[in-house]
Amidase
Amino acid sequence: MQPFELTLAEAATALEERTLSPVELTESVLERIGAVDERLGAYVTVAGETARNSAARAEREIADGRYRGPLHGIPFGLKDMIDVAGMPTTASSRVRAGHLAQTDSTVARQLSAAGGVLLGKTHTHEFAYGLTTPQTRNAWSQEHVAGGSSGGSAVAVAAGEATFALGTDTGGSIRVPAALNGTVGLKPTYGLVSRHGVTALSWSLDHVGPLTRTVRDAALVLSALVGHDPQDPASLRAVPSACPLPPDGGDMTGLRIGVPVNYYFDRVAPEVEAAVREALTQMTDMGAELVEVEIPMTRYIQPTHWGLMVPEATAYHERTLRSVPELYGPDVRILLEAGELVSAGDYLRAQRSRTLMRQAWLRLFDGIDVLAAPTVPITAAKTDQQTVQWPDGTTEGVPDAYVRLSAPANITGLPALSLSAGRDRAGLPIGLQLIGRPLAEATLLRTGHAYECARGVVDRGSAVAGA
């Protein structure tokens, strides 16, 4: 096994025991980037020399007995919405050409303090306003979309081009590409991880979180990111100082898993539904109790999500949309211009709907510990595919299909985890989504890790199709 194929937990153990050095690990990942990224397009910027210098410093520190913890010497990527002092934050847009960040974002500073080795910036759909990330190809088939908007981060992890990465999630932008590329993606509770220094799409829906190869890896990264940040107005004050690692083993005794009887299995590809249903059966074999639940206010999910996101995004881009509209991509420009047509009354109604929806979802969790459902209704679409045709005669845009099952967790601010539940007949990954109560990341991670242990499959970078 090559170092770039290691999970974060495996690499951390090897670094701590000094059977592998940060320099060796970083060189292996950089070589992997050089070998496959021209085809996959995960990175917009690779900071090779900076990474090598950081790895050498980590090696010296570990040799001197100054081991900082499991992220020390681990190479990672950052979605190009996240500021690092002295590096461009382009948001994959011509609008940001020549932009250099003056200071570190809070999450970049936290990862640096933990000893992480920054490899570079990963591609995003322009300003994170999309679900396909067109610059990036799927890690398992270059003819298929990577998902988005954190597509670059997901592909980097899936392809062995980063041991872990960070993304942002406004309507599924961590979980969607995680599902489509067979990685783990965690959207934490709203306000648990700071967004200071992260380019906004929609401030009331935006989250920052990790993309990793395993659930345990996600827990390790999350532990370095949690904590109150007075520079983020939405940052929670009463938060855990760290996220406990899930225990090993496949026991789910006493866990109540909610299974939706509506919405989440409506208009879902048969192979996706079958894989998720099989995962649920496996969870019962591990001691979990399945509880049927009805998802509340489903007719309001899409209008509430769009009623919040569209005007907030337009407000953020107000000046540049008026001064340099031609620099935006056509799809993003149309959405930003549409936001100017949303009235204050409509925005306030969306806020009210969000409040009612959050209250209803909290009541839903009175009877369950975790909600389990598909992450996305279809696997990765072909790059030229625009719509999905459903058996009931419905035609749905590909981005709309991808956001449909992930948006509720953004509206409500609940934590949500996506992990692999197998493959379809074409070999493309299928995502299982777990949603929990506010600040119940430990329960989500325990559940996901137990299922992962029982399934016993970790997709490593060396398995990337055609790479």
